[in-house]
Specification:
Blueprint lengths: L2 E4 L6 H15 L9 H23 L1 E12 L1 E6 L15 H11 L1 H7 L4 E6 L5 E3 L1 E2 L2 E2 L12 H11 L5 E8 L13 H10 L4 E5 L5 H4 L2 E8 L3 E3 L4 E10 L5 E9 L5 E10 L4 E10 L5 E9 L12 E9 L3 E7 L4 H10 L5 E7 L10 H10 L7 E4 L9 H12 L3 E5 L40 E2 L6 E2 L1 H4 L9 H10 L7 E2 L8 E5 L5 E8 L2 E6 L5 H5 L3 H15 L9 E7 L2 E3 L4 E8 L10 E7 L6 E2 L3 E3 L2 E6 L6 E10 L5 E12 L3 H4 L5 H9 L5 E4 L3 H9 L4 E11 L4 H20 L4
Parallel strand pairs: 3-4, 3-8, 8-9, 9-37, 11-17, 18-19, 18-20, 20-21, 21-27, 29-36
Antiparallel strand pairs: 1-2, 2-38, 4-5, 6-7, 10-12, 12-15, 13-14, 13-16, 16-17, 22-24, 23-25, 25-26, 26-27, 28-30, 30-34, 31-32, 31-35, 33-34, 35-36
Amino acid sequence: MPEFSWEPVGHPLVPVAATALLVVLLLLRPHGQRCSRSRWLALAGLRLLVILVVLLLLLRPAVVYRSTEYRTAAVLVGVDASRSMQVADQGTSSRWQQLAEALRQHQQRLRQLQEHLELYFYTVGGPPKPLDWNDQGLALPQEPQDQESAYGWGLDQLLRRHSGKRLAAVVLLGDGNARARADHQLPMPAVARRLAQQQVPLYTVTFGRSEAAEQMRDVRIEQLLAPEVVYVKNELVVQVQLRVVGLAQKELPVRLLFETAEGKMEMVDSVTVQAVDEEALLTARLHHVPEHPGTFKLTVQVEPQPGELVTVNNQQSSFVRVQEGGINVLYLEGAYRPEQKFVRRALAPSPNIQLEIVHVPLVEPKRRPDHITQLFQQAFEPGKYDVYVLGDVDASVFRPEELRRLREAVSRGAGLLMLGGVHSFGPGGWFDTPLADVLPVEMSPLERQNPGEPIRRDVHLPGPVKLRPTRQGLRSFLALSADPQQNQQLWESLPPLVDGANRFRGVKSGVVLLESQRGEPILVAGNFGTGRVLAFAADTTWRWVLAGFGRQHARLWRQMLLWLARREELDARGVWVQVEPRRLGVGQQATVTAGARNEQGETVADARFSAQLIPPEGEPVPLPLRRRGEQVQGQIDPLEVPGDYRVQVQATAPDGKSLGQATARFLVYQRDLELENPAADFPAMQRWASLTPEGKAFTAAEFSQLIELLEAIPGQLEIETTTRLELWDHWLVMVVFVSLLGLEWYLRKRWGLV
């Protein structure tokens, strides 16, 4: 039976009051009006009808019709057909076999359910696939082969496919180990909340044991950390993280295999780790010293253990590039300053310079962090680093024996560069340290800048400071161009350092290579033993980059470090190429970056590049590259075949002269999402079910209880529909309103009232 409803605008009294006011105004007939009584009544009647239409619009009446429909209830059943269901962690039967047996035992009751319910079965490991009934029961696959268990994405696909059905329940049969590819990532809680909004319960049944540490044995390598570049006869350190489950007190050998020049894998190191608890995350470090340059494959593997269900996760591989020459630089910085950040960026394209920046807090040695103390115990050993850079670091943060070892390292051939700063040179207390006679400039106790005191202006040069190479400097490593005239012009074009520099009291034994416009020494070079030393009063060369002189900034820093390491002859020419990441899973993308340098080590910004991707088998594939500043970049589309790949890049100068070629290797691995961590997850299934109204989670032994719940679902569900007819929201109302106003205006015009 229809019902009337009203939705007045604002308070219900507002339309009534407005209507009453309009009626009162209508009754106020002006005096002296030239209109007969009959005409006035006609016009008033039309105006009264307009007021009634306005009242209708203000009250917004509607007629509501209610009806009841009956629809057959539908139940969606998702069956996990992923590879983790192959695990046999409950006796000799796999999870898949237990699931199939549960369905077989209850197939008669399930067939009876189909008589009054719409029962739909799908696999939901990968893309959903319908499951049909045959004479033997539900036609399940022989073995679960899906490479993922994308529960959320799979159920979402089913809900979309059956959006017109009246769902009574959704059932999920699996082990709860939800693992999905990047393009199928949809959390199960999001799907459960969607079901809750529709008042649809989620029932879950878990096959397999959740107590992985007690019932399963597994060793898996979770992370492999290896440097991208290592130098010939330098130590390569490979760090791995291992997840050990169910193997407490068991000695586990971890081996490092390294590719030989002939392409064979040989074991070069091994360590033994041992877990104390039933489940533990262990770290192992393996070492190797490469003897030959090239790009080599390395593999870390753990020997499979007795009773281990899954062994595909016991090894990981990567690539490392071994180069000749190369220098290792340790940059110790006190206060966080822009200089170190821009130096890092400037040297990033130089694969033969490995820069390590460490921030040293301004505290006494006994109060500094443990990792700083551990670093200093090894960092100053002869041969550990080729060059040491001291930024704004006060001498008081070091122990005397540490500075003595640094002095000895410089004496034996390491380079030392001290930059300007509040706590550098004399202000930093370096005048009475073991480095006092190493630095080529004079320092005095009178210059001391104690920590926490206001900055002394008398020990610094006020800005702006314009840097000018001396005659010796123009003939040194400071050349920004191979052309002497162009080199002079480049130095003159560099902007001054507006923040000033340190003031040197004098030069002891070195050669001034850079000076200010007033002739004050800025960069002084010297020697100590067989090592080279630079005292650089400036600390804001990063401003050159902001002014558009990034190439000159990078060249200056590169050549300073190469000179300090006595590697001026280090070949910086040729083509280079990098692939990131070096190790990627099937279906992932990689980025290729390449560039070229001329004989002076300068980037050839207008070089032309061609590249090709060489798969493990088959023909090379052209790889398009696009220019990105002074480099070129390209994208490698997702690869579906695992194996070792190569990217080969060739470059030519604008005049057609070949600049050379370079090759980078990378690894595409088949990540076994399902067997990396195959433990069942009953708590997760419980959480998902609890997010829905009346949702429940069952173990495999409680499968019959699920059937009982499904049998209690009524076959016909009542669906009440409501139809609302808005009486005021109709085009006829507007037609009547306009017609009444138009008729009134017409009569007033005809009778001469306007």
